[in-house]
Design a protein that fits this description.
mainly alpha; elongated; 69% helix; Substrate Binding Domain Of Dnak, Chain:A, Domain 2
Length: 141
């Protein structure tokens, strides 16, 4: 039950400013407006992610789409858990919605780059296979 509660709270916190239907005013530096603007940034990134995902699905066969769907669901769970972890110190504070939205935006933008680079890869191009510029053989510590 606890595993479901935290991601549900993240979604609620990230979307709470949208419920007020207030537009982002970047000239207003109050915490509530910073939260609203951070949420607007996340909503824009999420829309781009959905578009990139749909484009990739349109280019794939059924087997590849099933694998992509599994990967995307796992990535979404990772993103939400990572943002819950990285913003845990501000839990209950007025800044947490902004921090959650900023984390979601950053990770979502990274995923967009990954999906769009995958979409531009040719099957015969070995340099595209998971290339992110890192070695990949480094130990996790």
């Amino acid at each position: 039950m606890r595993r479901l509660f935290l991601p549900a709270c993240l979604v609620l916190l990230a979307t709470a400013p949208a419920a007020f239907a207030e537009d982002c005013d970047r000239n207003d530096d109050s915490q509530s407006m910073l939260n609203i603007c951070a949420d607007a940034d996340y909503q824009a990134a999420d829309a781009k992610l959905n578009a990139a995902y749909k484009e990739l699905v349109g280019d794939n066969d059924q087997k590849a789409n099933k694998l992509l769907q599994t990967a995307q669901r796992a990535w979404l769970a990772f993103r939400d858990a990572e943002c819950a972890y990285s913003t845990a110190d501000s839990e209950g504070g007025s800044i947490q919605p902004m921090e959650v939205s900023e984390c979601l935006t950053e990770l979502t933008n990274q995923r967009i780059k990954q999906l769009t680079s995958d979409a531009n890869c040719k099957l015969s191009d070995p340099s595209c296979a998971g290339s992110d510029g890192s070695d990949g053989d480094q130990d996790m510590q």
